[in-house]
Amino acid sequence: MKRISEINPLPLYYQLKELLREQIECGALKPNQPVPSERELGEKYNISRMTARHALSQLEAEGFVYRKQGKGTFVAEPKIRQGLLKLTSFTEDMQSKGMKPGAKVVDMDVLSEDEELESKLGASPGEQFVKIQRVRTADGKPMALETSFLRRKFCPGIEEMDLNNRSLYKILEEQYQIFFSRAEQTLEPKLADEYEAQILGVDKGKPMLLMERTTFLEDSSTAIEYVRSVYRGDRYKFYIELTRS
Ligand code: 16G
Question: What's the whole-model pTM score?
């Protein structure tokens, strides 16, 4: 058994947190299995309950465990490991992982006279945009809040369609013959605001990942879609392969 040591210069709570994290990552502690209580951890590793509590709350903040009121602390499901190199849709991403994709429309609107969108999408002054905001789910659980803005002249009438539990990219391809070829995307951390927290079922202030994507047609220069997606930090990790040439 690995020990927690006073001689180790790392704080005790940190040593315990790392030890538990290793047990979770190697599968010794399985998803949805209870984590030993503060008292049990205190006795087992000869540390105070306060130290054990600190370690558990750090693990919770990093998305490795979750708490159930009055029931204790449990191991969280492993995060979804999402590659960043391919231009894929949420539906394709989830299906490739054997999960059932879902979408719930929470807002749909037609906008115009929006200078920010005009400049992000290289649109003409006064052009109309369709705003589609959806909560994306995997196996019924909320994962992300996606807010897409489409140039309406390329997909007129899309605002009348029922986009619940449907793939937007599939609709764009099949009904509007819009085939994307590339996208520019950024990724940055953010904290959940009240709205995102409530709609995604997390606490306000939890870490999230904000992705912004601009998606272009096959000619590579006509932008059609600008998206802001807020992913749950406790459910996602993004990866990218680097080569040294
Ligand atoms: C992805 C895209 C989003 C797109 C959506 C379509 C980001 C960062 N990326 O989530 O731009 O609108 O897929 O998915 O949000 P769908 O075809 O399943 O509706």
Answer: 0.87
